[in-house]
Design a protein that fits this description.
With 319 residues, this protein is of the alpha/beta class. The protein contains ten helices and ten strands. It starts with 9 loop residues before the first helix and ends with a strand.
Length: 319
């Protein structure tokens, strides 16, 4: 258990994963296996990835396993600043997080090197604490190295992150989602004028899409198209799917409260909400695509776990 998260997920995920690895080996021999793992912040990705790595790395499986987060592909601080300054009105690009704020060239080079079983591969690292929490890429001297001469080659990669597996929408679908969000907000505003019972939770349930210009959402969506080059290299996928996306607010608030209690510092509640707000449009736009299956029309390569408000598995299915 970590931060109140019970690991009822790995007993479901491990048989699925071992089955996919076995099938992969039969077809591809020694070519490393890539698993993508997606989940909203606070759902339990870290707990699950840790359990998966421990299980795969130890007897009886003894697989050389690398855990890697898409967070470690964030742009260096200077490049992120140039990106935000190029479109200062687009708040989605004001900080790291959304598609477009990652260095995909580094990710593709890494994936290719691992798949080719090259020696002495450096694994990028991102320091989220740098620049008062704004973050920066860690110095290369701090990057870990895999496939060292004399060591076993990486056999399994666990690639996790909040937007791993997201697929770009066609423009009409994107615009329709935005129009529906605008309509819902306007309807909610009228309701709030007639009643004083509205709460912050009600506002969270209405989402964040309508707070952004369509052209700004298009910018992120266009950037996401290039992420398909990473997604196409995944051999299987696990989706930790929150029953309701707005659970992420309470989960992140709980995490930050625990951090303040243990370390004496951390974001305030308002800062946490603002932080999650920056990511939330991605959940609204792309979760439906994850639920439909990122390998469609292929079947059997994706496991979806539906997570309830207490962060326990409510049900699961193979897509």
């Amino acid at each position: 258990m970590t931060d109140g998260i019970v690991d009822d997920k790995s007993p479901i995920c491990i048989p699925f994963l071992l089955s996919r690895i076995d099938e992969h080996k039969k077809r591809n021999g020694d070519v490393p296996f890539f698993l993508g793992l997606n989940g909203v912040q606070g759902v339990g990705k870290t707990t699950l990835v840790t359990a998966l790595q421990q299980t795969l790395s130890n007897p009886p499986h003894n697989l050389q396993t690398l855990c890697f987060s898409i967070d470690d592909l964030y742009l260096p601080r200077a490049e992120q600043q140039r990106l935000s300054e190029a479109d200062p009105e687009n708040s989605l690009l004001a900080q790291r997080g959304q598609p477009g704020t990652h260095d995909l060239s580094v990710g593709l080079q890494l994936f290719t090197a691992i798949r080719n079983r090259e020696p002495n591969i450096k694994i990028p690292s991102y320091d989220k604490s740098a620049f008062q929490g704004k973050g920066d890429r860690a110095d290369e001297s701090q990057w870990s190295v895999v496939n060292k001469i004399g060591d076993r080659r990486v056999e399994v990669v666990l690639f996790e992150g909040w937007c791993v597996g997201f697929r770009a929408l066609d423009d009409e679908n994107l615009a329709q989602k935005w129009r529906i969000a605008r309509r819902d907000v306007e309807s909610g505003f009228e309701d709030s004028r007639r009643s004083s019972a509205g709460t912050k939770e009600d506002a969270r349930k209405r989402g964040r899409l309508a707070t952004h210009r369509l052209q700004h959402l298009r910018c992120v969506n266009e950037s996401l198209q290039s992420y398909d080059h990473l997604t196409a290299q995944l051999d299987a996928f696990i989706h930790l799917d929150a029953e309701e996306s707005h659970y992420v607010y309470d989960w992140r608030l709980e995490q930050e409260a625990a951090m303040r209690a243990s370390k004496g510092s951390g974001m305030s509640s308002d800062e946490v909400v603002n932080f999650v707000n920056g990511y939330y449009p991605g959940y609204e736009l792309y979760t439906q695509g994850l639920r439909a299956g990122i390998f469609f029309p292929e079947q059997g390569k994706q496991l979806r776990l539906v997570i309830d408000e207490s962060r326990r598995v409510a049900r699961h299915e193979i897509i």
